[in-house]
Amino acid sequence: MIQRTTTPAARATRPAPTAPSATRTVTRAQARRVAIAAQGFLDPRPEPFAATMRHVQRVVDRVGVVQIDSVNVLARSHYLPFFSRLGPYDTGLLDRARDRAPRRLVEDWAHEACLIPPSTWPLLDFRMRTAADRAWGGMRRILEERPDFVDVVCAEVEARGPMTTRELEVALAHDQPRRTDHWGWNWSDVKQALEYLFWAGRISSAGRTSQFERRYAALSTTAPPALRAAWTQRPGPEADSDRHVELVRTAARAHGIGTELCLADYFRISREDARPAIARLVADGELIPVTVPGWKPAWLHAEARLPRRVHAEALLSPFDSLVWQRERIHALWDFHYRIEIYTPAQKRVHGYYVLPFLYGDALVARCDLKADRSAGVLRCHRITWERGAPAEARPALVANLESMAAWLGLSRVELQPG
User: pTM for this one?
Assistant: First the structure.
């Protein structure tokens, strides 16, 4: 039993936890097991393709936020964390959770572009309020140069949405010539206005099309009735400290154990904002200061599961919340991991779209994967094994690749040399 020694005076002042007095030592192996359990990898899996919305909700409750990315060389990234924790499942369940009322998930800027529970959306208001100053250049430009046009776009979405950018451009007959001097940023004025409005929380998303286009919508369209007041009449900056506490609380529960960087980075809040939130959760007994040898000062969630041993098997998206904080996985797993999508081919070390393979409590391999849909083949261009990977991990990886192929509707796996 861990006894807290925080005094009433200390609870009142809640100093920043820059140098906590740790009450116990947690080994790196224990920390790994805590992290794996907290992320839901030890929860029982349903039979293949037998998952229900209840299983999808269980994953959402575990991780709290699911990152979105447009790369589709294997599968859209937001589908993969559910496969990693449930095995083969019907992705239509996730689409329905996002796109149909009552929505269990909505899209917003959280860690990056992410799916989050609707109840989390108001907690990100502090970020929405900074859109005019911190949004990308094109968004700020359209707001500064054409604020009246931004209001027109907002009114059109509220009156006629959900709509994609192309649908709104047609509706407004305002498709501007697109710049081509900078790949990836040649957005029309309509797109820039929509992205600003989305960042600022003035409109939301009602899901994506099959081409991955966001369907912009009024807040009233996507907010469940019980939360509409929170979406439209949310309190101002005076509530930010409470918002930060809730976000750090979610991060701590999802991580199980983490440093200040881990707890701040989960929702990309500043470490300056995370520190008083951590102190408050420590004072309230929700976080317990611990020492992990070779790692920075850390905190254990008071309700975190502390398994004596674990055995998990999962192929992990590069954007999976277990591995997206690279310093964390290097410290706990001694696993140096970088996404090489944007690295020139000749300079890549492990491949284009590389998924770590979790086996037992270790990250034992990296697999460069591609779904060749025209040939019906899951192509594994390269497997890189970590030093000391157990021999039994090799057939387990093949089995997991075959399971992934079945989930993606591919007939076989092709392991290529190299």
Answer: 0.89
